[in-house]
Amino acid sequence: MLYQGLSEDIINSFFEVYNELGFGFLERVYKNSLYFELSDAGYKCETEKAIEVFIKKERSDCITQIL
Length: 67
Prior knowledge:
This protein is mostly helical and 67 residues long. The chain has three helices and two strands. The chain has one domain.
């Protein structure tokens, strides 16, 4: 598998966060916790990275602005 080590580290970090916090929190709590867990593991992380998504040759963020 391509990036097997990276994939394992991300999954292990997820379980670290989940085992520590349990269930019931808002998504942003898990997102921020996973960010810190991966950063502590030595990975450079970014949250809420902007990406362009196209549907039928239109940027999806433009479609939502029109609606």
